[in-house]
Design goal:
The chain is α+β, with helices and mostly antiparallel strands and 151 residues long. It folds into 2 domains: 22-77, Nuclear Transport Factor 2, Chain: A; 83-151, Roll (Nuclear Transport Factor 2, Chain: A), CATH 3.10.450. The protein contains 3 helices and 8 strands. Strands 1-2-3-4-5-6-7-8 form an 8-stranded antiparallel sheet, with helices on one face. A hairpin with a 5-residue loop joins strand 5 (106-114) and strand 6.
């Protein structure tokens, strides 16, 4: 009986997750027009409805990006993954001076976020154990802005 309930629960969660990824609304032309103006050389564009925004997943110059736009076509920011060797010196220094420094903490995924105000932020996932994991957010000057826990 417990296995049946557990199986139904897992199956229901899978279906909810799958349907949550579905496109709910038609993408407004203001969004696609803004995207084309901002990223005219984008290729392999795939759109997702994120309820509060529209997200374009695309490649440009052999790199993968995610850009978000409001329903009015206002660009909200763009993110891409980078390797550890691409982290700017100021951000590396900020990480090294934080309580999340090596060798206790291991670096995982690193993202660079380009924001509308011209600012650039760096997201760094670090882990100390399977339970002790953090999503860190640094300014381009190396200041730790946020250290959110993750599951």
């Amino acid at each position: 009986m417990h296995r049946l309930v557990f199986s139904l629960l897992i199956g229901g969660l899978f279906l909810l997750n799958t349907s949550a990824q579905a496109q709910f609304r038609k993408i407004p032309s203001s969004v696609t027009d803004s995207f084309k103006l901002k990223y005219p050389s984008a290729a392999a564009v795939e759109w997702q409805d994120k309820v509060t925004a529209f997200q374009a997943n695309f490649t440009q110059e052999n790199e993968k990006y995610q850009a978000r736009f409001s329903s009015k076509g206002e660009w909200q920011g763009t993110t891409k993954r980078i390797s550890e060797d691409k982290i700017p010196a100021a951000v590396k220094d900020g990480l090294a001076k934080s309580k999340y420094a090596a060798p206790d903490w291991k670096i995982g995924t690193i993202t660079v976020k380009y924001l509308p105000d011209g600012k650039t932020q760096y997201g760094i996932f670090v882990s100390k154990s399977d339970i002790n994991r953090k999503n860190l957010l640094f300014s381009s000057e190396g200041q730790l802005l946020k250290d959110g826990s993750t599951l």
